[in-house]
Amino acid sequence: MNKFATRLVLIALVIVIGAGASAPAAVRKPSSTYTLSVVCFTATPKSPKIARLKSFEEIVKQAPILPESGAAFVLDLSTPARFLRQIQTTSRDYDFTLVAGGTTTCDNKAICPFTIPPSPDDLTKAGFTGEWSLTVKDPSTVTLEMRELTLNMLLPGQTKVLPVQTMKTTRTVSLNRTYILGGTAKQENKVTTLRIFAVSVTQGG
Predict the structure, then answer these.
(1) CA 20 to 30 Å from 162, out of 12, 44, 115, 127?
(2) What span, in angstroms and rounded, lies between the C-alpha atoms of 92 and 89?
(3) Beta-bridge mates of residue 178
(4) 98 contacts: CB under 8 Å, gap ≥ 6
(5) Nearest by Cα to 56 from 197, 171, 186
C-alpha cells in the first residue's frame, strides 16, 4: 500500500473513532425534565413529654424526623404501606399516617401548575393543587421554588373538598434526597400532632 492510500485509511479510522466517541455523549445528554414527589403526612410523638410541646419547630428539634440535609432516599408513594415503611425507618419516635401524596413534572426554569388528585379509596379526598418551578445549579443540585402548595381535603361534617393549608417556600435541594418543606402542630387533649409536607426531586419525567 502506498503512502497516499495509507494516509486515507488513517483518516477514515480517525473519523470512525470520533463518531463512535461522540455517539454515547449524545445518549448521555441530561434530561431537562424533573419529577417532584410531594407528600403530606401526620406524625404523633410517642413520648408524652414531647407530645405536650406545642411548637412544630421545638418538637422536630427534640425528635427529628428527617435530617436538615435530607434523607438519602426518594419518596416511594406507589402505595401507602411503602411510604409508611420508608418514613418509619427515619424515626421511631412517632406514629405516622399518610394524608396525601403524588408526583408532578416540570422542565428546568419553567413554571408548572399541577393537580394531584386524591386516591380513589381515600374518604377524606385529600389531594394537592399548586405551582412550582426549579433552576438547576449543578448536575446534582437544584433550587426548588414551591410557588404554591395547597392541601385540599374533605373535613368532618363537610360535603365539599376545601383547601385546608397552603404554603410557599424556596430552598436548594440535592437530587434523590427527601426534605421536609414545613409543617404545623395541632394540640388536642394535651397531645400534639404534626402535619408535615415533604418532597424529593429526581431527574427525568
Answers:
(1) 44
(2) 7
(3) 71, 200
(4) 39, 40, 41, 80, 83, 84
(5) 186
* Other residues' Cβ atoms within 10 Å of the Cβ of residue 62: 14
Write the pLDDT tens digit of every residue in 95-137: 999 999 999 999 999 999 999 999 888 888 999 999 999 999 9
Q: What would the DSSP string read from start to end of 37-103? A: EEEEEEEEESSHHHHT---HHHHHHHS-SS-TT-BSS----SSHHHHHHHHHTT-SSEEEEEEEEEE
Round to whole Å and give the CA distance between 84 and 77: 9
Q: Which amino acid is at 111?
A: I
Q: What is the pTM of this model?
A: 0.83
Fill in the DSSP letter of residue 78.
Answer: S
Q: Which three cell numbers stand for residue 107?
A: 422542565
- Classify burial at 80, counting beta carbons within 10 Å of its beta carbon; exposed 0-12, middle 13-18, buried 19 or more: middle
- Residue listed under C-alpha cell 413554571: 111
Look at residues 122, 127, 85, 66 and name the one whose alpha carbon lies nearest to residue 102. Answer: 127
Which of 138, 205, 132, 136 shows the shortest CA–CA distance to 170?
A: 132
